[in-house]
Each structure stands twice: as structure tokens, then as C-alpha cells.
Amino acid sequence: MAVVAIVGVQWGDEGKGKIVDLLTPQVQWVIRCQGGANAGHTIVVGDEKYVFHQIPSGVLHPGIRCIIGAGVVIDPESLVAELQQLKARGIDLRGRLFISPKAHVTLPYHRLLDAGREARRGGRKIGTTGRGIGPTYTDKAARSGVRMQDVLSPSQFRERLEANLPENNFLLRDFFHQAPVDPETVCEAYAGYADTLRDFVQDTDVMVREAIRKGEHLLLEGAQGSLLDLDHGTYPYVTSSNTNSSGLCSGAGIAPTRLTHVIGVVKAYATRVGMGPFPTELQNSNGKILQERGQEFGATTGRVRRCGWFDAVSARSSLWHNGVTSLALTKLDVLDTLPSLSLCTAYRYRGEVLKDMPSDLTVLQEAEPIYEELPGWQAPTAGLTAYKDFPDAAKRYIDRLTAIMESEVSIISTGHGREHAVVHNPIF
Ligand code: GDP
Ligand code: IMO
Ligand code: MG
Prior knowledge:
By secondary structure, this protein is α/β, with parallel strands linked by helices.
């Protein structure tokens, strides 16, 4: 039995979807554990590109069973659309996608409140994906959330909605000066989603327990990245769930003692979409090269991702919080043309050298990266499938990065495609 968590160790978009798809043939189950429609996980198979927001990235392999766990916040409208788009492409998930009845759902007022709060933050806005993630998790914590099992029962759904609407409509109308939400419209729409999703909602706790008892292999698919973790990320510029491996366990309903591996997916440089501190951000031609060669546009919102050099200070703190057992290094090929590369090994703050990630945001905002320079390889690595074929300078970059991170690499990804990867140290 292997229970393998796949987590992003930066600010998301490290290539988690691709790594999950790559490893899926070796497991029986793939579970999405937290986050919601804010995620955008890209998988490229031949000429076909798929972007998953809520559906686990294992579904492209026939016969693999997938779960959307209790820790995910489900936007039924967008999930139904995702299912329909997949069906139109010949992939029917009936009988192999299961949704936890305990998962909370995003309602129309959550999206409106997300937008309203962002607008009021002005210059301090978070730059959320606008998917209602914060308000949905807020209601869950406040014990006024609505769960998938409520959606399946029209009378229960109406009761919960009507209990919540006075407060939320008061906020929308009187504080944000927006149109209130009409209960009839919502009840009708959600009854339609319930019809589509009913067969998918099953007791996933029992499925997971039986799978583990039988010794089957499971992948826990993380969304976002550790630096966006609600507790340990760059608060308040974070998402509203625990993106670390412990959050994955809790979202999937699997005890931490069951985890056998934690794979930290790490991009060979750094990106961030949305606001918040980013010490190694490059606002120069190198940043532009990373953005263009890496095609760094948000998979959910299409926003341009901010780009910078690899930051080992923040990534090391993520490795610790996740208990990473090996790394999956992605997008090394994006660095192929650069004559020299920089790795941030520490920060300088008012004359002091910081080797650990500061929790004080004002320190992080002022911190300057201390770099180690390495030669580039200026040769193509895109599409390589054997480690021996990497140029020496690329091997040195990998060696140095892993030495600073005090971790080993299990997978090196060399392109978008499923086949573009070097399995350096097999996990299974
Ligand atoms: P996720 O959210 O962590 O799953 O990552 P995204 O899908 O948002 O962003 C990663 C992007 O990089 C996607 O467009 C992937 O197709 C692409 N990608 C993944 N691995 C590699 C790689 O090794 N090289 C290149 N060039 N692109 C990659
Ligand atoms: P994947 O799974 C990158 C960022 C948003 C914003 C902050 C809060 O594809 O890696 P939210 O909508 O969650 O309240 O936004 O988090 N963010 C992501 N950035 N990748 C993601 O997911 C993200 N999900 C949220 O840009 O800064
Ligand atoms: Mg993404």
C-alpha cells in the first residue's frame, strides 16, 4: 500500500496536474483533497490539452477511480460544466468519479462576496481567482455552510439557503450595494445540479478505508502551493485552505500515519499569480523570458503570472511543513536559453542574513535575495527522457538546487507532455 501526497511547494502552478497524470497508472485511486474551482491543473496528452479545476487529474487514465474529498469546496455549476466538457470529448466519469457528501459547496453569494471584498480591499487586494473560495471556507468554519448532501435534498437545501440568505443579502445589498440573491433562482439551479451530480455522491470514506485495507495505492492531489497555505503561507496573501500534506490528509479523510510518500512539486524557477510578497521576482528581460518561454498565464483566470528566480528559502520552509520525501522538478526546459542562472539561498534584511522564511510580511516585503550564480547550459533539454542526456551545466543546476533543498529528486519533467519526463528515482 502506498499513499502518496503530491503537493506544490511554491505559489501554485508548479505542474502538479502533470505529475499526478504521470504517476496515475501506478495507483488505483486519485483524490482531490482541498481547494476548489480556484485550481487549474493542466495535462497535455499528444495534441489534446485538458485543464481540470475540480476533477482530479487522474481521470484521463481509464479504469482509475477518482474522489473529490470532503475538504474540497465544490462549485456545482462549474463542476457540472467540467463533466459535460469531458463527456463531449468522449470521457464519461460515471462509476469512477465519487464525491464526498461532506464537501461544502460554493453558492452564488460566495462569488459575489469574494468580488465585493476584493474591490473594497483596493490597493491591498489579494488578487483572488474570484471563485468564491474565501467566503465558502468562511461559512464552513462559521458552521453555516451548505454541503453536497444538502444539495441532494431540495427541502434541506432550501432550508439551509433560507437560513443563510438574510445575512448574506443584507451584506450584498446594504454593504456592497449589489443586487441580492433570489432564493427561487438558486433553488432551481441547484436542483438541476443535484440531478446531474446525485449518482456521483457516495460514501467516499468507506471507499478509501476499503482501498487502504486491500493494500491499494492512492495519490492525494494537492491544489495551490505551500506558500499559499492558510496557516503557513504568506498570510494574508494566501488561499483559504491548508495546502500542505497535512491539509491533504484531513481533506481526504486519511490519517497522517498512512502517508508513505510526499512528493514536492517544484518549478525550476518561481512564479506567483495574484498579489503578495515575492522576493525573487524579476521585473526585467529575464522575467519576461521566463514568462514567455514558460507560457506563464493562469490556467484558471488567464492572468499573467509574475516570474522570478528559484527561491530556496521559501521552498525549504515548504519542504519542512510538508515532510517532503522527494522532489518532482518541473519546467527545467524553460531555462534552456539563459546564459546564467541565479538561485536564492538566503535573504538580506536590514544588514542581517536570513536563512529561514520570516513570518512577518513586512520583513518579507523588504527582504532582498542573496543569490548564488550558476552557468546556464544554452542547449535544449525539452523532451529529454534520460538523465544521462542532460548537459553538464543542467546537472549542476539540479545538483545544487537539491543540495540547498536537502532533498532528492524523483522526477524531472522536461515538457508539457505526459512522455516528457525523466524518472530519476522511482517512487513505487
Ligand atoms: P498546476 O496547477 O500545478 O497543475 O500547474 P498548471 O497546470 O497551472 O501550470 C503548469 C504549466 O506548465 C502547464 O501549462 C503545464 O502543461 C506546463 N508544464 C508542466 N511541466 C512542464 C515542463 O516540465 N516543461 C514545460 N515547458 N511545461 C510544463
Ligand atoms: P493551482 O492548484 C496559483 C492564488 C490566487 C490568489 C490567492 C487567493 O492551479 O496551483 P483564492 O481564489 O484561492 O482565494 O485566491 O491564491 N491561487 C492560486 N495561484 N495556482 C493556484 O492553484 C491558485 N489558487 C489560488 O491567485 O493570489
Ligand atoms: Mg494551476
